[in-house]
Specification:
The complex is a heterodimer of chains A (about 210) and B (about 400). With about 210 residues, chain A is of the alpha+beta class. Chain A has a domain at about 40-100 and about 160-205. Chain A has helices spanning about 5-20, 25-80, 130-135; strands at about 135-140, 155, 160-170, 175-190, 195-205. In chain A, the strands form 2 sheets. Chain A has a 3-stranded antiparallel β-sheet, covered by helices on one side. The longest helix of chain A is centred in the N-terminal third of the chain and has 54 residues, at about 25-80. The radius of gyration of chain A is 33 Å and the shape is elongated. Chain A starts with a helix and ends with a strand. The relative contact order of chain A is 0.13. Chain B has one domain (about 55-385). Chain B has 4 helices and 20 strands. In chain B, the strands form 5 sheets. In chain B, strands 5, 6, 9, 10, 14, 15 and 16 form a 7-stranded antiparallel β-sheet that branches. Chain B has a 5-stranded antiparallel β-sheet with strand order 11-12-8-7-13, with no helix packed on it. In chain B, a hairpin with an 8-residue loop joins strand 14 (about 275-290) and strand 15. Classes of the chains: A alpha+beta (about 210), B alpha+beta (about 400). The interface between A and B is large, with 59 and 65 residues.
């Protein structure tokens, strides 16, 4: 064999070797990391969607908690059960009936008005006292979808607080004697959701029915 | 030559085994992830559907309750909260009924209207009629569910623009539209005439309750027919109030509360009714399990019309009431305390409206659930408590 022919074969062999080399380990690792980041982003959006859904349920409960307190105040005003001066916080002067600061939601006592000193423990649908010392609780039918069975789910609203604040309204620097502002603030936390959410319901209430 | 051979060699068995092991671990992890994602998305879809149904049902329920006593029950003076029903023939009116043949929507049996304390035989149509434990029992361990009936006046149909007259038997009423319209007939700007009484949607239908003045109630028992207007009248409709309604509201034999009271002495063929009429909406909410679906369903029955489903999968319904009587508060009552009547209800508390999701099972996950608890002030019923104002500085 000639020398030239040997050289030719060697060159061909070496060039074939370059063609056949695959990805290096580093390249493969890099691609996998990129893929993982992309997939994680997709998963995160799924988690966010589920979280938002969970939050919407708590948002709905917050609205109920605020509106039931507002309804009880207007109702007491309408029946004259509550004199207009009593529609105030207990810390005000003269003192009213509504407890100041954030309160865990309890059930209305003998006066039918929420967040007052006579509030009582709430009961579940089965008639037992709600957990966490009677903080308002929901009774859900549980996995079998039937109320009154062992798997009923009692959901304590311990992650909610309700604050009723009564503030006088000013006109030209003078307090309006026949009108106050009722602010009901519901603060609540949601599982898997950082921070506290708030729902605020404000209504002005007049001494005139 | 040796190098060329080396570059074309395949994987060794060991390499293949290791890569297969790693690959299968990855596939198992991915499958698990997929399964979890499927479960999560199932729960999410069930919950969002549940919340949507729940919001719709609670909105319509709360809106109806807040309307209790609205309209003419208060406007026409007297008791803002109740209308006496005819019963002196010994047959008590019952509810909730539909159409002309059925009065068995709840537990297969009708319910008697409440009677006022002191007059035990006179049933009253109150603006709120509590029905504690009168609903169906879905699970014996939980006990019976509640029903509630809310009565208000329907001011969208301008029935007070018509004059009415009644036949000698007290069973057929002729409505005529006078020209010019009476001063009590107030129509929206730009509208020249009230709705026709035989109009398809807004008009009178079988089962509708009509109140004349303050104490005469009748239920429509046939399709409205037209007739020839007399004199200067511009429209004429004939409406039957036959004594065959299943709710026993039409009782021509009764001395009080019936339409017969308007028939003049000597029973002339036609007597003008001196007071104007208004349509009442008596809305009853109750749970039922329609055979077609087999699902516990929140039903809404308006007067004597056919009941309509509001939401499926409502598994529990309970109410309590705040009753206020001249300075004494009875809060959170499941039924009327002694000495009070439903006309004294000032607040309705929805204790429980528990719902479950549409689908039952998916890979070991059961129903999702939600429960409504809130209060609604009976705005139109508190007015009778307002005067005289006691214990208030204003």
């Amino acid at each position: 064999m000639e020398l030239g022919a040997i050289m030719k074969i060697k060159r061909a062999a070496s060039s074939r070797k370059i063609d056949q080399s695959g990805f290096s380990l580093i390249e493969t690792m890099f691609a996998m990391v990129l893929l993982a980041v992309g997939m994680l982003a997709t998963l995160a959006s799924l988690g966010y969607a589920i979280g938002a859904n969970q939050t919407s349920q708590e948002d709905m409960l917050a609205r109920q908690l605020a509106s039931e307190a507002m309804e009880s105040i207007f109702n007491a005003r309408n029946t004259s059960q509550l004199g207009f001066a009593s529609i105030n916080n207990t810390t005000a002067s003269p003192p009213g009936v509504f407890l100041p600061n954030a309160q865990s939601p309890k059930c209305a006592g003998p006066d039918g008005i929420l967040d007052t000193a006579d509030d009582v423990a709430c009961l579940t649908a089965a008639g037992a006292e709600c957990p966490n010392a009677g903080i308002e609780c929901l009774t859900e039918p549980g996995p079998d979808g039937i109320m009154g069975t062992a798997d009923d789910v009692v959901v304590s609203l311990e992650n909610f607080t309700r604050t009723i604040t009564i503030t006088p309204l000013l006109e030209n620097g003078t307090t309006v004697p026949t009108l106050v502002l009722v602010t009901i603030t519901i603060n609540y936390t949601v599982p898997n959701h950082a921070g506290t959410k708030s729902y605020v319901l404000e209504e002005e209430i007049s001494s005139y029915h | 030559m040796a190098r060329a051979h080396n570059s074309s060699r395949g994987f060794t068995l060991m390499e293949l085994m290791i890569s297969a092991a790693i690959g299968s671990v990855l596939i198992v992890m991915a499958a698990d992830l997929f399964s979890r994602a499927m479960k999560a998305s199932w729960i999410t879809s069930q919950k969002s559907e549940l919340q949507q149904d729940f919001r719709a049902a609670s909105n319509i329920l709360q809106r109806d309750i807040s309307m209790a006593g609205a309209g003419s029950l208060g406007q026409q003076g007297l008791s803002t909260s109740s209308v006496g029903l005819p019963a002196s023939t010994g047959t008590l009116p019952v509810y909730p009924c539909s159409g002309l043949t059925t009065c068995n929507y709840i537990n297969g049996a009708p319910v008697a209207y409440p009677t006022a304390s002191g007059a035990p035989t006179v049933p009253f149509l109150y603006s709120i009629i509590p029905g504690p434990n009168l609903g169906i029992t879905i699970n014996a361990a939980q006990g019976a569910t509640d029903i509630i009936t809310i009565v208000s006046a329907d001011v969208s149909l301008a029935l007070n623009c018509y004059t009415s007259s009644i036949n000698a038997a007290g069973t057929v009423v002729t409505f005529q539209l006078p020209s010019p319209l009476p001063s009590t007939c107030i129509l929206p700007t730009g509208v020249a005439a009230p709705q026709a009484l035989n109009a398809a949607v807004i008009g009178l239908q079988q089962g509708d309750l009509i109140l004349w003045g303050t104490n005469a109630v009748g239920v429509v028992t046939s399709v409205v027919t037209t007739c020839a207007p007399t004199g200067t009248n511009t429209a004429c409709y004939t409406v039957d109030f036959a004594a065959t309604d299943p709710g026993h509201i039409n009782q021509p034999g009764a001395v009080t509360g019936s339409l017969k009271q308007f028939v003049g002495s000597g029973a002339p063929a036609s007597t003008a009714i001196p007071v104007s009429a208004v349509r009442l909406l008596a809305v009853t909410y109750y749970l039922a399990i329609p055979p077609a679906t087999g699902l516990p369903t929140l039903m809404r029955l308006q007067s004597g019309r056919a009941p309509a489903p509001v939401a499926e999968n409502v598994v529990y319904l309970k109410f309590s009431y705040d009753v206020y009587d001249a300075g004494v508060v009875d809060a959170n009552q499941s039924s009327m305390p002694a000495g009070t009547n439903p006309g004294m209800i000032t607040k309705v508390n929805i204790l429980h409206m528990s719902m479950r999701s549409q689908q039952a099972k998916y890979q070991g996950i059961g129903y999702q659930g939600l429960d409504l608890q809130t209060s609604i002030a009976a705005r139109n019923l508190t007015s009778q408590q307002e005067y005289p104002i006691s214990g208030s500085s204003y």
